[in-house]
């Protein structure tokens, strides 16, 4: 990996003085085009060996461009808020909005590489994390983010020279610590581990660029030019009216018209008396489960999806009634806000993720992409096709971080929906619940049914399975929801 | 305080069953009107004695209304992210947007009262915190927030009975801890301290309501009705076309036309050579200061204000060049986003506040309210008049939390501004910096000058003084900025 990079080059002062003013003017121009267009965000990853000029180079970029539109983030140890969320949460928090440049030091690579060098993690676990990173970056790229990855390199001899030089000078001696020399001792291992990481995560869309850090002028020009080239290339495409996403092959139509949904018996029996008994029973059980000490280190993420009037709100209220108001939050998902639109699709869900010991209820969710956005054509086919895998990755990260993820599709028949719409229109208190749009959605019943079946097929995983809830009878549906939550939570806390 | 409240009342079951369905339907209606109008947020404070039904009552409100639009927050010990910010930061984070109801348990009252009961704080310090709270709440109210404050009360005998009852039942015995009995022992002192706090912070706009917690039905009806009454009253006003802000008396015009600005000598001498020497000197000094161990527990907040083309951007770049890119962030203040517009004015500045050891640079700031918003009439006179005191309070909280706040007004003459505008128009690289609006703003030069003078008069405090920078000569201005930061930082870290 490192061998193939341009190493040992130098840029002399005259050459630099000729290049620099043109390069910085071009970079500033490109930055303002980026800001004007507001079509994509730029994420620059800065990784590599300490002392190879990472900080200095970024300072220079800030000097050359308008620093008001560059956001630099350095990641140290996670804060307590960060430590209670999935590993990637703190990086999602730092993503720049469209139009801006985010510079991320010691990002998602730093922890995995360090732990592998120190043999805290095994090779297989390391490879798995690299694979997660690869998929995460692929998602960013497909969301339109321009991802630029720099690895700052120094040879072993170069590193030794740097440390010796620093030690020689009285004014800089304090900068060399024990840790620096220890790191120098493990250089070969670090070199191997990092090389492996870079090979595994270099892709055509987001290749690693190795920066030889030994000559300050050379590395400055190298990074500046690489950034400019990437930025200008993408800007040109956008300015010429970019069609960012390839179209995937359409899904084959279902031949037999039989599917997950139309084989369900949507009306299940349950009398009021039985309902009330079981409601009390399962609410009591849920109350106890969420107060168990074992739950303090876990969290519960509930996802409610279903057709209009399927009874999501009613089911959610029966769940929340069992919980302490201080413990849960309900997030109703509507159209994204301005700030959310300037970010990758999943960002607006990441931002809500709960701390440990908390319950988060999504009233509609990230599945909007493969439901309403697919059916209404709000995103391209390629976008919703890739969303299945991205969503599985996202939920996997939730579960790894200790969340119990329970997902419900509340299924009602067309007849039952019609009856409920009419009832709502007649009832002054429920009028607000029914809009023109609800009537329009009914016309697309079959398209939605297909989308639901595909969704359940592709995202019902072992760690986060879907539960289909027969919901023509509200009592039955609410009890099934509560019972399912209790069962899955019991299993998780066991 | 507590004596005057309705205590010892009971609501019998029949009465409750008659009241409840009507009350909850009315509350739900009011909640949806609130959501439709999106004109104000509701903040409900829940404080008082444990066991007096705080959690139960909020659960009930969630059951009665639509819990998707109620956000409950409980505050325990601050997280590490919270602990590095001013005391109020975590409460600002929890404020609901317009249209929603936020329920805040153990909010800004809990810490001060507990510390006073435990004698961690003295009476004078306690009174000062209450005064800060009073001003904070007044600000919320004037920003349009409907603030409703409940204090849940139990008599000493009532509390004893509750603990004994819990201990008697095998299933609830675990809920009574040592701490509960200790608290019971200090009941009288708690009663006195809380009574004092309530008296000091009860105002006509946001009075405390004492809830007798001994009877569950009584307290539920009491809270429900109080909430409904307050909500309905405000909704009626808004629906009838509310003029939320009183107009204050206009400021007297300056008689002599002499002011802070026109007595400054805006063009100060500085040659390029002297500039370069001093630039290096002060940048080096600033670099050292921000790397001092003492700075790790502090933060630096820089505010740059000035007319268009006064050189804010150039000055900021000379400052940021001295800093490590991992350490600072520049926040350019433009028009508020949708999410920011749904919050009190200062919210969008609070959300950016830095952690310890960091530098935050505001390119324009909260002073927009008393500058552009005042001059352009974007807010009422009453709004910008009260902003002076609110801003002083805000900066006071920053300083108390360890921030060094340095504020610059870059002052240029009209002639110099004109010359710079023309230069920018001629220069392709700077074209983007000049807009129609900039030309329009020039016509209001005198109005802006008056606004600046008033601003400096009223917000140049001992802890966060303004520095007027004579900026017709850019070299001089940049050096004065750097020198001032170094001086103030040196003093603060001494």
Please provide a brief summary of the model:
The structure is a homodimer of 494-residue chains. Chain A is of the alpha/beta class.
Characterise this structure.
- The structure is a homodimer of 494-residue chains.
- Chain A has two domains: 13-239, P-loop containing nucleotide triphosphate hydrolases (Rossmann fold); 272-493, Rossmann fold.
- The first copy, chain A, has 20 helices and ten strands.
- Chain A has helices at residues 13-37, 54-64, 80-83, 89-93, 110-117, 123-142, 156-168, 178-185, 187-201, 216-239, 272-289, 312-320, 338-341, 347-350, 372-375, 381-400, 414-426, 436-442, 445-459, 474-493, and strands spanning 42-48, 70-74, 101-105, 146-153, 208-212, 299-306, 328-332, 359-363, 403-411, 466-470.
- In chain A, strands 2-3-1-4-5 form a five-stranded parallel sheet, with helices on both faces.
- The first copy, chain A, starts with 12 loop residues before the first helix and ends with a helix.
- The mean pLDDT of chain A is 89.
- Chain A binds chain B through residues 25, 28-29, 32, 36, 55, 58-59, 61-63, 66-69, 71-74, 79-81, 103, 105, 313, 316-317, 320-321, 323-332, 337-339, 363, 429, 432, and chain B through 25, 28-29, 32, 36, 55, 58-59, 61-63, 66-69, 71-74, 79-81, 103, 105, 313, 316-317, 320-321, 323-332, 337-339, 363, 429, 432.
